[in-house]
Amino acid sequence: MKSTGSMKLMAGLVVASVALTGCVESGRTSSSSGGGTECPWEADDSIDAKARIAYQKIPNGDLVVKDLGILEACMPNADITWSNFASGGDVVQGFGSDSVDLGLMGSSPATIALSKPLEMAISVVWIHDVIGEAESLVVTDDSIKDVNGLVGKTIAVPFSSTAHFSLLQALEDAGVDSRNDVKLINLEPEKMPSAWQGDQIDAAWVWDPVLSELKKEGTVILSAADTAEAGKPTYDLGAASNSFMEANPEFMVQWAKAQDHAVNVIADDPATAAESVAVEVGISPEEAEQLFEGFTYLTATEQASADFLGGKMAQDLLSTAKFLVAQGGIESVSPADAYSAGVDAAPAEQAAE
After folding, report:
1. Per the structure, how many domains does the chain have?
2. Within-domain flag for 149
């Protein structure tokens, strides 16, 4: 139960607040944004595309690409704008309002975007990470040991996110009715700590860095690794509008190469990658490096295989759609070929080459 641990949580939030203003123990206080960064391969100054990229503060290669300014270094004449979004649902809205060309969203928001009634003209082109313990269900009362102990409780989760999908799956597997047995409230991650502190919620399914703050006082009882083992994996995906890809194929190749490079930096030089994540998220490099453990990162070669973008991803999206229909999350499942058409392995294949 909550007790003097509240003081620890408040202290952690103060530290996080200071870090977000720029006090990061990494030797620099802001994103490099290409300043001093050299392209890891021969830069292409013929590309002059205008790209509006939606990113989220999730510890994966996308933050490394942004922080180091790899795209800017490899395409010096491109006009690239990065905009931060709180959740995948917000990124879907960005695509819907034609204010985003490329963006990071979870597999659940991607499924919603490809399903009726939206059926957006976008394609999944990259897997930023396979989500594991980095998204978890944390409870305020340590006497709650499993999902069944949440009956009658209030649970916060960002709706239409991978966390929402995992939570619904966990409730269903436990025989808990998500409509009648618990109270689910739609809450963005940055608003959860105050709701937690104010005793307005009993649990939250969320990702880092908020997850780490809540774990200082709460107890994790389930994670996305558990729901993946139960047959419902979740991912953070890179999506792009079809019109942008058709107009800018060279940009997409450079983008995928940059993402693949970042995955290899995480694998081969995690301290350097952690410094980028620390600057972007507002935590220490040591904390950032620990966050990598909650995800699986795939190279371009792995992503292009039949296990992922080259085949199984479309099946996973279709399965997600069927589950969301049963839960009332979407109107109906689109034809199977809509999900196949909504996955494009070409950028990963080209980056692998």
Report:
1. 2
2. yes
Domain of residue 64, residue span: 23-132+234-352
Domain termination site, one of 165, 198, 229: 229
Residue 105 lies in a domain: yes
The total of other beta-carbon atoms located within 10 Å of residue 130's CB is 19
CA distances from 334 to 111, 146, 217 (A): 10, 34, 42
The DSSP 8-state label assigned to residue 140 in this structure reads S
Q: Alpha-carbon distance 269 to 272, whole Å?
A: 6
* Contact present, 119 and 128 (Cβ < 8 Å): no
**What tens digit of pLDDT does each residue of 132-189 get?**
999 999 999 999 999 999 999 999 999 988 899 999 999 999 999 999 999 999 999 9
- Distance between CA atoms of 206 and 316, rounded to whole angstroms? 21
The per-residue pLDDT for range 17-29, each reduced to its tens digit, is: 333 333 344 455 5
Upstream peptide bond of 189 is cis (omega within 30 degrees of 0): no
Beta bridge partners of 105: 237
Sign of CA dihedral 187, 296, 85, 241: negative
Pairing outcome for strands 50-55 and 102-106:
parallel
Measured CA to CA, the distance from residue 15 to residue 20 in angstroms comes to: 9
Instruction: Tell me: do 104 and 147 sit in the same domain.
Output: no
Considering the domain architecture, whether residues 297 and 282 belong to the same structural domain is answered as: yes
Q: Is the pTM of this model over 0.85?
A: no
State the alpha helices, DSSP H only, in 133-241.
Answer: 162-173, 192-197, 210-215, 224-229
Residue 8 belongs to some domain of the structure: no
- Picking from 229, 247, 282, the residue at the C-terminal end of a domain is 229
